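[SOLVED] Need 3D model of a two-part complex

Original post:
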Amino acid sequence: MTNTQESNKVPKKFRNLKRSFMKNITLRNDHSFKSFPKGLRFHGQEQEEQVILIIRSHWIIYVPQILLAILVLVFPWLLGAIVPAIFESVVIFISLLITSFLIGISILVSAIVKWYYNVDMITDQRVVDLDFPNVMAHTMSETQLEHIEDITQKQLGLLGSIFDVGTVYVQTAGSAQNIEFTNVPRPRDVQEILSDLLESKEKGEI
Amino acid sequence: MNNDVNNMLDNLGKNPLGGLSVNVATLLKFPLVLILFGNVLFAALLFLRSRILADTFQSSSISLIKTIITIYLITTIIGSIIAVLFLLVG
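Solution:
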């Protein structure tokens, strides 16, 4: 999609904001970095509240899980190479195959679900962070834009440099919850978008 | 008495379990059933958690995620039952 088409998706009240905001928000949108998503709802969303940006972890974070799933899928043959007796009983080998297939699928599906539900949102009123670390727990933190004091982004390691992945830390005033956007794509752009938004909020433009 | 002593001396240094044969297939059965049970439990928990999360957050692709999780749960249950039946037969 061209930049002009992306700009047309931006609601009118945001079109007069800073040029850097418009540039960052409309550039290279994908499933991990999507501006003004359609059909999105979250718990506690106000009637007039507009979701500006939705960010998910970069796909590169899930590569170890995909590799593990492949390893589990070929495990019966690896075990057979070490213990040839496994091949002697066809029935046992088939059940081992089914088991490794099911576990491999479990790893892949849990990676997809984690990717989908580990989501960070920037709205015109607040910042929301939904974390789904494992199957037993999830946390949802949010803070109003007015409470944000400092925004820091950190890019670490080779992967961070190659794939432009990093973590954005949103520090808040007082006892409000600090928020982390972990392993997100384009962390510098996220920081800039949030800074521009805070500036516009202070000026009363939104 | 002499024979016993001779037998004892003859068997010195030999593996006392040398005659015991262990069937690897039989050894695998119990851990496999445990792993399958754990996997079904994991699938059920993931299904329940995703239902809670669907109330917390939903986007346009929520129906796709729900379909994936439902198919995954059904596949896991049916696959586990088949695998356990194979283990019982084998």
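Edit: The first strand of chain A starts at residue 33 and ends at 35.
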